[in-house]
């Protein structure tokens, strides 16, 4: 790559990181190019697609942050404490970092490296759930699909309340966690979402086809 192209690519990475953090992964590519001081065509020539730019800019950061949260949750001496920490911390990341919120939602499935990070995150989440259920503190009918549904709805609340009540999501999460304790469990009125149903519902929530 020529020196001028390398400089433009670095400008675009910096601008994309800023705008993805401010607005989420749907930030307009034209705005990224404008902030970087290059043409829209230059962005496409260097990165090709939004997904390629996301993989270039977001994936490593997302892997580090999600991996750290899962590692600390699994290292928690108390299984329920680790489970609650995992949910509370990821919900806080959703409220404070729109880019991570979109990663958790799996919003751009064509970003291959990012989807691999999501898969590793899902595997860790399943271990966190299983650990709390084996300890008898998390209700046994809670599923991984239920967890992703919680994250999907929390993302909507956090985004909608960001300017008027930025901590509103905390109240909802606290109510939800109390309801997930095994001693608070009552029979549920319907079964969990299937993986296919969850995929369709999350697509509707995030606007992803």
TrEMBL record:
A Pfam family per the record: TetR_N
Sequence ranges assigned to domain HTH tetR-type in this UniProt record: 6-65
Keywords: DNA-binding, Transcription, Transcription regulation
Portion annotated as DNA-binding: 28-47
InterPro entries, A to Z: Homeodomain-like_sf (IPR009057), HTH-type_TetR-like_transc_reg (IPR050109), HTH_TetR (IPR001647), Tet_transcr_reg_TetR-rel_C_sf (IPR036271), TetR_SbtR-like_C (IPR049445)
GO molecular function terms listed in the Swiss-Prot or TrEMBL record: DNA-binding transcription factor activity; transcription cis-regulatory region binding
Protein name, UniProt field: TetR/AcrR family transcriptional regulator
Species, as recorded: Streptomyces sporangiiformans
């Amino acid at each position: 790559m020529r020196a001028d192209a390398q400089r433009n690519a670095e400008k675009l990475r910096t601008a994309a990181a800023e705008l993805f953090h401010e607005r989420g992964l749907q930030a307009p590519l034209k705005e990224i190019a404008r902030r970087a001081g290059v043409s829209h065509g230059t962005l496409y020539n260097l990165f090709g697609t939004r997904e390629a730019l996301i993989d270039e800019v977001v994936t490593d950061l997302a892997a580090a942050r999600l991996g750290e949260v899962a590692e600390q949750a699994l290292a928690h001496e108390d299984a329920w404490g680790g489970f609650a920490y995992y949910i509370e911390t990821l919900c806080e990341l959703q409220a404070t970092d729109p880019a991570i919120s979109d990663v958790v939602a799996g919003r751009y499935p064509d970003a291959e490296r990012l989807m691999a990070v999501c898969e590793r995150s899902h595997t860790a989440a399943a271990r966190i759930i299983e650990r709390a259920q084996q300890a008898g503190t998390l209700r046994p009918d809670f599923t991984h699909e239920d967890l992703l549904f919680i994250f999907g709805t929390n993302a909507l609340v956090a985004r909608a309340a960001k300017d008027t009540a930025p901590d509103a999501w905390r109240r909802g999460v606290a109510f939800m966690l109390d309801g997930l304790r095994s001693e608070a469990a009552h029979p549920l009125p319907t079964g969990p979402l299937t993986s296919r149903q969850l995929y369709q519902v999350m697509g509707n929530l995030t606007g992803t086809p």
